[in-house]
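tool_call: predict_structure(chain=1)
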Amino acid sequence: MTKKEFLQQLNISLKRLPADEREDMLQDFEEHFAIGLAEGKKEAEIAAALGSPRQIAKDAVASYHLQQAGTKATPGNVFRAMWAIIGLGFFNLVIVLGPFIGLVSMIFAGWVVAASFIASPFLWLIQTILYASSFTMFELFVSIGLCGLGIFIALGMFYVTRILSKWFVRYLKFNARLVKGGLIHDNH
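tool_result:
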């Protein structure tokens, strides 16, 4: 593969990165070629030593999205990082997607319970309006108690969601290092 082919393929594979990030990477690889050519190597040798442009791009996109998720763990950033990590290898489909689905299900269930409990006085009011003969003070006090409990659950879910998002981003970073073979090098 020639330098031009390598850089074109890399540029196409990096289309999911912002333009400035993509340009920086392309300049870095142009420098690799310039240094290799100065050492007397052929373009094909340099390209072979650098590896597959598509795999380099997958690694770069995964690293970029992990950095974004680590900086600001919004649901969109975490989701993009998760898909980028899954893209590193088929093995990651099971290893990353399974825990992500479980984590999102837990968070979603907690928020649904909190919202349901908070809405219970309003639901009691609707029931009382529609079926006035079914009014009981006990149900009123239970719905008010559930509303208070729902507020506490919502506050707890706010913190749980933030903590679990950060832990999941750490798990994605760990998984990316594992896929890239970085765990061996991190211990030294």
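agent: Confidence is low (pLDDT under 50) at residues 183-188. Proceeding to next step.
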